[in-house]
Amino acid sequence: MNPILEIVIKLLASSALLTAFYLVLFRGKASYRACRRFLLCIPVLSLVFSLVSIEKPGQIFSFASLTAMKSTAADTMVAASPGPVYTVEPAVPVEYPGSEAAAQYLPASAQEADTAPVSSILGAVSPEHVLATAYLTVMLLLAAVILRQMVALRRLGRRAERQTLPGYTVWLSREVRSAFSVMRNIYVNADAPWERLSIIIRHEKEHIARRHYIDLAVMEFFTLLLWFDPFVWIVRRELRNVHEFEADRGALSGGVDPRDYMLAILEETAGVIPVMANGIQSSMIKKRFLKMKTENKVRLRALRVALTVPFAAALMLFFAFRPAAEREIAAEPQAAAQLPSSLPVPPDTEAPVLPRFPRPPPSGSLPRLPRPTPFSSPFRTVS
pTM of whole model > 0.90? Predict the structure, then answer.
């Protein structure tokens, strides 16, 4: 299987299982802080499970057996391999304009290169390159949307009225349709009545006090990185819902009348907020009103504590660990005898004839050479 495809399948499967685990044991049953932590862990764990690959330990062999196997196999393959085959391509005379007497010779493939079809050029582009280009293009487009909104906020801050308070800053502008907060900045409509502004600012202060902007920054980073994963977008939506539920609970616990609070929320649902901001959204007004009327009871806490770590460990074993590659090597060099004695030869070519050299006699049976006779010179010595 293609390694990239394998990583994507692991990522989608692990994020789907983790999201299902959250929906069953966390949503509506755990505290808001526990829900936030688990939702932020889902993309991190999915990346770890898909990218980390741990090979299970296999058989360990001695150095002597591996060396003997390597030398024997190399000798067998060298003896069976044919010699190099060289092909000569026919040459075509080419005359350059302006030089009638000179003639240059180029291979035939040089002439065919100019008339190569477009399909052969397109065939050189692999599917991996196309997918990588599409992935980077979408990621850059999403990053450009966030950057554009941040630039618009900066321009809005230049035209808005600023009021610095302990722990946060309020920006009053008629261009703001629906109140929202970015980092430690609260943007509200300057024409809104003070009673409604005080309730909305209290709600946005809860976002700042509980540091929801850090969760949003981390989640937007993983959304850019894993935009092709539909479960990451589900986790992102669930995290925003948890932020709003927690801010509503904090604002109501501060002594705000629930009726006035709901009315202020309904009046602040007409605008559009940036993706990196906490704000009031009309798509979840009904859920928020139901959450305000019911107490968030923590249930199945012991079951979550008992199952969360084993569930993550089981996913780690299932996705990250892979069986070791089969490396069954015999300890004796005689296992190399099972290697083919000759390499396959194409049907249109003749098998190369290899010279046979006499093998040396075994040790201990070398022939005895005759002893050398004393040297006698043909010349006589004269005294």
Answer: no
